[in-house]
Amino acid sequence: MPEVQLLQIVELFHSLQGEGRLTGVPSVFVRLAGCNLACVWCDTTYARAPEAGRAMALPDLVQRVCAFPTRFVVLTGGEPMLASGIQALVVALLAQGKHVTIETNGTLQPDGISCDLASISPKLRNSSIAPDEDEDERINLPALAAWIDGYDYQLKFVVSLPSDVLELRGVVASIGGSIPPERVLLMPEGADSALLHQRDAWLVDVCKEYGYRYCRRLHVDLFGSRRGV
């Protein structure tokens, strides 16, 4: 009898997509354990450890996902590309007719994985406690190029200060290729609506100047900063 694939799942819930091109779309979120970065403003620190959550057999996980009345599934983390069973999970979900988004920091190669949308969020200096020392860990240009060349994608940057814009423009230019500005999403950093709206004052103008897409955090506006939403 073949061995049953197990995945370490931190949480699984049905909500609205709060970020990116599919904002507002009812989706099932599958949060996998483990992350290779430690962003200072991370709102899912509980998912960083590879042993976080509980192990679930692949068939049981797919069955739970399919119990919800939506075809949209978001695989997130942590960093879901670290999960040893991620390839098998995607294959199983696609076989069920699901639309699969993978939310990744872009530091790991896609290695031929299938998905309908790659939501790639490279981490800028504002994410790091030692930004001069870990740039090679945060930004993997060959991996970013592989995601962009092979997938329908969105490039989502967390922005704290106007100075972050120059940095992200450098990252986009260094990836190479032709990246339409509307594929670049700028998302204000913040865990509450007041701070998000405060950063709107200048971020909207930046998007208008460069043609980037403004990325709201709808789930923060609707539910606040809490788990399972």
Largest beta-sheet details: 9 strands, mixed
In the CATH hierarchy, the third-tier topology is known as: TIM Barrel
Cα shape = globular
CATH superfamily: Aldolase class I
Number of domains: 1
Give the termini distance in whole angstroms. 38 Å
Strand composition percent: 15-25%
Question: What is the CATH architecture annotation?
Answer: Alpha-Beta Barrel
Specify the number of helices: 7
How many DSSP-defined strands? 9
Low-confidence stretches: none
Query: Would you tell me the structural class of the helices and strands?
Result: alpha/beta
| Radius of gyration from the alpha-carbon trace, in angstroms | 17 Å
Helix percentage range: 25-40%
Q: Can you tell me the CATH class?
A: Alpha Beta
Mean pLDDT: 93
Largest beta sheet: what is the strand line-up?
A: 3-1-2-4-5-6-7-8-9
Task: Please provide the ordered H/E string of secondary-structure elements.
Answer: EEEHEHEEHHEHEHEH
Please write out the topology.
Blueprint (H helix, E strand, L loop, with lengths): L5 E11 L9 E7 L21 E4 H9 L5 E5 L9 H10 L3 E6 L12 E4 L14 H4 L2 H10 L2 E7 L3 H13 L8 E5 L4 H18 L2 E2 L3 H6 L6
Parallel strand pairs: 2-4, 4-5, 5-6, 6-7, 7-8, 8-9
Antiparallel strand pairs: 1-2, 1-3
